[in-house]
Amino acid sequence: MTEIWQGFLKAVELIITFDREVMEIALRSLSISLLATLIASILCIPLGGILQFYFFTGKRALISLIQTFYSVPTVLVGLFVFLLFSRLGPLGGLNLLFTPTIMVLGQAILITPILIGLTISALSGVDKSLKDTALSLGATNTQAIITIIKEARFSIISAILLAFGRAISEVGCVIMVGGNIRGFTRVLTTAIALETQRGEIELSLALGLILLLISLTVNLLLNIYQQRKV
Amino acid sequence: MSLITVTNLGKNIQGRFILKNINLKFEKGEISVIFGPTSAGKTTLLRIIGLLDEPTTGFITINDLEVKAGINNALFRRKISMVLQKPVVFNSSVWDNVAYGLRIRGLSYEIIRNKVGETLNHFGLEKYASVNARKLSGGEMQKVALARAMIVEPEILILDEPMANLDVKTSGEVEEKIKDYVYSEKGTIIMSTHDLQQGQRLADQISVIHNGTITQYGDKGTVFYHPETVEVARFIGFDNILTGIIVDRIADLSVVKISQHYLEVISNEPVGTEVDICLRPEDITISLNRPSTSARNTYLCEIKKVSYLNPLTRVKLDGNIPLTCLITSSSARDLQLTTGMQVYVSIKTTAMRVIPKK
């Protein structure tokens, strides 16, 4: 018990003294996940808008399929990306495996279903008469989609926060495609996994605390936006 | 050439017809009122004309060009704006709401600022400019919706029961804005209503819609004074509808037998025709003694019920012919009308509209 307590105190010390390694890992984690969320959002929100706006056969089935992928195991996405970019894979020539770039890509793929699915849910919560109103005031289809997305902005921001939360807290995908290389691809989750195995409890706890802090912030923002929705 | 022509229009939803065989014309610079009871198909028709929905059959032309809903037709849609029955506002400030149509047309900020300022003043909304439109009352929201549609000056402005959710005062204001819009030659208005008086006040042209078909269409005078079917008559305020048979006729003056009683009416239908006689309650006069008037039809009746409603009083009468009449409350008080009283009613022959049964 004392060992854990000692570890905890050391961890706090590492954080408040801005320990170089801790900060470096935390910043890397943040930037990779933020970038992944940004890229996925730019692609998925308009895509969700288009899927919601137009009617086509199989729409219902497609949405169900997307929802099924909300909880896709992170290691499975890792495996998929790994196979795609491994030396023998179809995109192996790009030499991206075990780089931060591929980690961004992996996380972006991981959160794509959540982002598209939640965007669609958010948009279907917008009164249909708003779409009619936009069209009737002379909006093009694209302008109407943008208007509806704006109407659902609080729900969509919630979706983005949720997606970011999933990205930053996952370990399976980044460890497989990033490889947890110190000073290069090591992020909060992979570092915790490794340091704990090596008995470096203080470092693990410090990193864990930071991760928790990020999660709490995300949840706080989520709460704020979900309340503004009404 | 009419501004809008609707030809053989029909709409089925899940195999059930909502509209059938609608043929209408709308002229430039007029207020056309589509008049009908709830769920007659007014909204469906307006949504098709407003290019929000596609018809199942038939088509619409604007300036002789066929137009269709759907497929990126913003170019045509920009000639037409529709204000929906339920007030709809975007979750943004009143200013942003009103500016919407101008923004999506890519106008410069200078122009938008001037026009929005002008429009907000015109609608008395300037004090709400920075308020979120969702926070307004229903009536104010509807004013925002109307301002937002009128600011882009569409050639055709479609209003689906624009006053349905408004109080009397706001409703009057909105009526003024509607008249202004057409009189200042900004565009043509097509609106629906189920409010008789409102239709009378605003309409140039009236189409009466019933169970998804147009039962009568024409200028205001024709529809209001010469209804062609009993449904139209009943709907536009001919509360008394009496069924009888023409038993005698001299020139255009015919005698109709209704149960055991006779009424003189103007009609050139042959003897033996079964007819419905439609009569507005305000075209019946009541007197205590047998009057000596030019009215051809005078009968003794008993008062069944007197309902005082300011400024008019509705009197239900029973005699040989059951009738409802509407007189001013002051004359009802002067005559001291009460239930059970015997009174004489006089009906002007010209006030009765005779419709032969099909």
Describe this protein with a few key phrases.
heterodimer, A: 230 residues, mainly alpha, B: 358 residues, 5-stranded antiparallel beta sheet, 25% helix, 37% strand
Can you describe this structure?
The complex is a heterodimer of chains A (230) and B (358). Chain A is mainly α and 230 residues long. Helix content of chain A is 77%, strand content 0%. Chain A is built from eleven helices and no strands. In chain A, helix 4 (74-85) packs parallel to helix 9. The longest helix of chain A is centred in the first third of the chain and has 34 residues, at 20-53. Chain A is globular and about 65 Å long. Chain B is of the alpha+beta class. Chain B contains ten helices and 20 strands. In chain B, helix 3 packs across helix 4, helix 3 (94-104) packs parallel to helix 5 (138-150) and helix 5 (138-150) runs parallel beside helix 6 (168-183). The two termini of chain B are 33 Å apart. Classes of the chains: A mainly alpha (230), B alpha+beta (358). Chain A binds chain B through residues 127, 129-130, 132-141, 143, 147, 150-151, and chain B through 47, 50-52, 72, 74, 77-78, 80-82, 84, 86, 88, 90-92, 100-101, 104-105, 145, 148-149, 152, 154, 158.
Sequence of strands across the biggest β-sheet of chain B: 6-7-8-3-9-10
Number of beta-strand segments of chain B? 20
Q: Between the first and last Cα atoms of chain B, what is the distance in angstroms?
A: 33 Å
Number of helices of chain B: 10
Work out the radius of gyration of chain B: 25 Å
Shape of chain B: globular
Structural class of chain B: alpha+beta
**What is the tally of beta strands of chain A?**
0
% residues in beta strands of chain B: 35-45%
